[in-house]
Amino acid sequence: MTRVFHEQGILFGYRHPQSSATACVLSLFQMTNETLNIWTHLLPFWFFTWRFVTALYVTDIWNDSYSWPLFVYMGTSCVYPLASSCAHTFNSMSKNARHICYFLDYGAVNLFSLGSAIAYSAYSIPNVMVNTTFHDYYVPLAVLNTIISTGLSCYSRFLEIQKPGLCKMLRVLAFAYPYTWDSLPIFYRLFLLSGDGAQNEAALYHQKHTAMTLLASFFYSAHLPERLAPGRFDYIGHSHQLFHVCVILATHLQMEAIVLDKTLRREWLLANSRPLSFPQIAGAVLLCLIFSLSNIIYFSAALYRIPEPELHKKET
C-alpha cells in the first residue's frame, strides 16, 4: 500500500489503489475502511434532500423572497454530503483521482459555508448588527473566504507526505477560519447578548450546533481513537467516521436553528432588515462556484505537471 492511500492508525481494509469505477461502487456493499465513511454522508444526503424538496413544495417560491436564503442554505446542505460520499467512493481509482475527488469535496464544503453565511445574514444575525457595516460586508467576505479556503485546502494535499504537520495545520485553518467568520453573529448572540426575546428559542440549537462542530473538529484533528490502538478501529469507529456523524448532526441542529430564527423573527426582520436580493444571492453563489472551480481545475492540472518522482514525494 503506497503512502498516498494510507491513513494514520488504519492498518487494514484498504481497497486496491487502482480500482475501477465499478469496483468502487460495489465497495459500498463490502466492508472496507471507507464503507461507513460513504454511508454516513450518503444517507444524510437523502434526508437533507427530502427536507429541501418538502420545503420547496409547501412554499410559493416565486413570491416568497424571504425564504430564498433558506433554500440556498438547504440546497448547499445537500451538496456537501453527496460530494463527500462520492469522494470516499471513488478515491481509490488512482492517486490523482484521489486528489481530485477531495478537491471537489473541499469545494462543496466551502459552498455549504457560503450557504450558511447567507442564511445567517438573512435570519440569525443579532438585532444590533442588522443593517450595520458588518452586515453589509458579511456575505461578500464569506464569498472571499470560500475562495481562499478552497485554494488553501487543495494546496495542502501537496504537502501531506513531505510536511504532514504543515499540511494538517493548513487544512484545519482552511476550514476553521470560514466557520469562525460565518459564526461571528452566532457567537455574539450566544456569549454577548442575554434575553434577546424570541431568538432565545433558537439559541439552544445554536449552542448544540457549536458544540457538535467543535467535537467534529476534535475528531478530524486528533485521529482518535485509532491513533491509540492502530488496527482496532479500521472498519468501525475510527475518527473520520465519527467526524462525519458529528458534522451531519451539527448540520441538522444548524438547520433547526435557522428555521426557528426564520419563523420567529420574520415580522421583525421584514420590518427592519434589508433583505438580500436575488442578484445578491445568485451573484454570491456564482462567484463562489466560478472561483472555487477555477481553484480545483488549477490544482488538478498541477497534479499532471509535477514530474513523477517529485509527485511521489509531495502527494497525498
From TrEMBL:
Subcellular location, principal: membrane
GO molecular function, one term: metal ion binding
Chain coiled-coil ranges: none
Domain of life according to the entry: Eukaryota
Binding site for Zn(2+): 88, 240, 244
Keyword check for Transferase: no
This protein's GO CC annotations: membrane
Family annotation (Pfam families): HlyIII
Alphabetized InterPro entries for the sequence: AdipoR/HlyIII-related
Topological category with respect to the lipid bilayer: Multi-pass membrane protein
Keywords: Membrane, Metal-binding, Receptor, Transmembrane, Transmembrane helix, Zinc
Positions of transmembrane segments: 38-58, 70-90, 102-125, 137-158, 280-304
Subcellular localization, as worded in the UniProt entry: Membrane
Family the entry assigns: Belongs to the ADIPOR family.
Protein name (database record): Membrane progestin receptor gamma isoform X4
Organism: Panthera pardus
